[in-house]
Design a protein that fits this description.
288 residues; OB fold (Dihydrolipoamide Acetyltransferase, E2P); three-stranded antiparallel β-sheet; disordered C terminus
């Protein structure tokens, strides 16, 4: 009974966390080493009701390996903890019921985004979320089997060693780099990052790639891996440099940028946020 209550409390707290992160997209700017990730803001576009359409688009590489990995793995990994905790809170659930719960969880997240107008409905996200819950249930079964042959003291020792190793590695990184390996920053009212006062907001990484051609509605980006992509500029695309908010006219061929992609478009990949690397001139107001 005690295990069920504790698991239920943790499950409820994690459900609230998922609501903020996956439904409301209330996510701070995340720095992992020199990598900057921004998942905040809302998502627009048309709903996807055809299974594997979005997943196939990620696998064909047109959105880049990093973006594909974050979206595919993120939608799975975030739903692993509920799949692991649910059997502790509700021991009577079998595999069939877990599959039903997994599918329901994915639909609930996508429908809430649609109802609250903070995202679009994507059947592929339902599939990925359901796979996450099922993977969590598999981890639960594996944990039970290990627990049957390994004593609690050994499990506690292994867990303690892992925690101490993470703390030690974090300390080493902090001593060498002068910062934590993972940190969180602020975003503005549009869910975009603020970088005033930084000489190079891309922190010397060179960003996503270099702009090699530009017109009023799109630009050609040569990514760091050498692939050239057409990026569509939206009416609400935000442009920033180290000086703060700039306009579309402030970007030019030769600029290296960090790109946060927007919703899919029939014309190609779209830009939700463009960050100009390096020290830049002060821009004017954003043009639409």
């Amino acid at each position: 009974m005690k295990t069920r209550i504790i698991s239920g409390i943790i499950l409820a707290a994690y459900a609230f966390f998922l609501f903020k992160i996956m439904v409301l997209k209330d996510v701070p700017l995340i720095h992992i080493g020199d990598l900057m990730l921004n998942f905040g803001g809302t998502q627009g576009g048309e709903s996807n009701l055809i299974p594997f359409t979005t997943i196939a688009a990620y696998f064909d590489g047109h959105k880049g390996f990093l973006i594909a990995s974050i979206n595919l793995l993120g939608n799975v990994i975030l739903l692993v903890p509920p799949g692991f905790l649910i059997p502790f809170a509700f021991p009577s659930l079998n595999r069939t019921k877990i599959i039903v719960v997994a599918i329901f969880s994915g639909f609930a997240i996508e429908l809430l985004q649609l109802i609250l107008e903070v995202g679009i409905f994507d059947i592929d996200d339902v599939i990925l979320n359901a796979l996450g819950v099922i993977a969590g249930f598999w981890c639960y079964n594996l944990f039970i089997k290990i627990h049957e042959i390994v004593s609690k003291q050994i499990l506690i020792t292994i867990f303690s060693v892992l925690i101490l190793s993470i703390i030690a590695l974090t300390g080493i990184y902090y001593v060498r780099k002068g910062r934590l390996p993972v940190s969180f920053g602020a975003v503005d009212e549009n869910g975009q990052a603020s970088f005033p006062g930084q000489s190079d907001p891309c922190k010397g990484t060179g960003g996503t790639g270099e702009i090699i051609a530009i017109d009023n509605h799109a630009f050609i980006l040569k990514r760091s891996d050498g692939v050239e992509q057409k990026i569509i500029i939206l009416e609400n695309t935000s442009f920033r440099s180290s000086a703060g908010l700039v306009s579309q006219s402030d970007i030019k061929p030769g600029d290296r940028i960090t790109l946060v992609t927007g919703p899919d478009s029939p014309e190609g990949l779209t830009a939700a946020f463009v960050l100009i690397c390096g020290p830049k001139r002060t821009g004017g107001k954003k043009t639409r």
